[in-house]
Amino acid sequence: MIYPNTYETAIRWMFEDFPKMPILVIGHTGIGKTEVPKRLFAKLKRIYDEACAIAEKDRTPEQQAEVDKGPIGFLNQNFSHLDYAELGGLPVNKGDHMEYLPPMWLKLMGQFKRGVAVFNEVNRMELQTRHAYMQLLDEREINGAVIPDGWVIVQTANPADDQYQVSDFDRALVRRSCTMMMADDTEVWQAWGMNEYRDPITGDSMDPAVLSLSVRLGAQMGKNTIENRVEAQPTRAGLTIVSEMRRAGITKLPREVRENIVAGVLGANAAGILESMLSGNLLKSLMEKFEKGEEIKGQDAEVMFDLLFMAFEKTKKAPAKWANQLHVLWLSLPEDGKPVLAKSVYPWFYQHKKEYGDFKVAYQKWLMDHAEVAMRFAMPEADA
């Protein structure tokens, strides 16, 4: 399952680094399947507009690169009522040949080199239209009308169960998409309501009484589970896509997001196996860095926690030998990892005063800078 905040991160990465892969997000009505891409577009457009507003000579290289990419388009198209002509365009007799007039929604996409397109209700199309739609997904082209390479396609659909009048999901559609099951989450919605939502008239955040009401309603907000879950299956084509995603930089995403994306292409089991393989290789290389006393930066917090426990297991039999490496690891850890390590090595401060001198000084400074965290974790004073 993917939640609205991680869903937005996934769409943004696809838009920026891998737009050729359509997303298929399946979930109950009213949980943000369409709203999240809209919100993302507004953010992306604001970034572009702000860069354009700066004089060229004053732009940073990143801002200039953004301007050079060109404006961003947005499309919100309902596919439930489209017939074949509305999807592929109206045929026009040119005497010796037939041409097709592209539909307005495809013409709009052609006006921008990049953009976010939301194709709503894709499992409500008529059968004939669905066949043509498959070609559109595969080739990003139909009857001569082309979707520019910079557009990411987000398809939305309701689950194929007894609550909705929709078709079952064609395996061919799932294979052509990065398929995600979307769940509702009260805390994520509240964070959005407080921090990102703005009233269209007043510009205020969500009314506090309504935020409180969402908590009280709890499970009454709607059915969050999906009975007929749809999951991608491993295919050779999917393996090729994941290889390309890795080359495109998917590994820079938080683990939860990238695992959801890979699961959307190969299924959850394959994604889990891949993460396990990569985590094992990564931790092995990070342990080698730890043993050499090299600083480790840029890793997910959960990876650093795994490394922390592996390092502690290795060093607890000979703490004095590894004092310097533990000090370097301390400097590399996220703030919530430092209390774990400090409380573990605290008894060694006094048993090995010489070796742990640098660590103890760093610990004293950290206590002064993070008094609230130290109190919460009941951290001992360094000079106790």
List keywords for this structure.
2 domains; Rossmann fold; 9 strands; 384 residues; 5-stranded parallel sheet; single chain; 11% strand; two-stranded antiparallel sheet
The gist of it:
With 384 residues, this protein is an alpha/beta fold. Helices cover 51% and strands 11% of the residues. The chain has 2 domains: 4-278, 3-Layer(aba) Sandwich (Rossmann fold); 297-376, no CATH class.
Secondary-structure topology with pairs:
Elements: H1 4-17, E1 23-26, H2 35-53, H3 61-69, E2 72-78, H4 84-88, E3 90-93, E4 98-101, H5 104-110, E5 114-120, H6 127-139, E6 141-142, E7 145-146, E8 150-157, H7 171-175, E9 178-181, H8 186-195, H9 208-217, H10 236-248, H11 255-266, H12 268-291, H13 301-315, H14 323-332, H15 338-345, H16 348-351, H17 357-369, H18 371-376
Parallel strand pairs: 1-8, 1-9, 2-5, 5-8
Antiparallel strand pairs: 3-4, 6-7
Helix pairs in contact: 1-11, 2-3, 8-9, 11-12, 12-13
For the record, the CATH architecture of the largest domain stands as 3-Layer(aba) Sandwich
Order of strands, widest sheet: 2-5-8-1-9
The computed structural class is alpha/beta
Q: Which radius of gyration do the C-alpha atoms yield? A: 26 Å
- Quaternary structure of the protein: single chain
Task: Give the low-confidence spans.
Answer: none
Instruction: Report the total helices.
Output: 18
Shape from CA axes?
A: elongated
Which CATH C-level class of the largest domain is it? Answer: Alpha Beta
Q: Could you describe the largest sheet, including whether it forms a barrel?
A: 5 strands, parallel
Query: Percent of residues in beta strands?
Result: 5-15%
Mean pLDDT: 87
The CATH topology of the largest domain is given as Rossmann fold
Domain count: 2
| Tally of DSSP β-strands | 9
| Proportion of residues in helical segments | 40-55%
Q: First CA to last CA: what distance?
A: 48 Å
Give the SSE string: HEHHEHEEHEHEEEHEHHHHHHHHHHH
Question: What is the H level of CATH, i.e. the homologous superfamily of the largest domain?
Answer: P-loop containing nucleotide triphosphate hydrolases
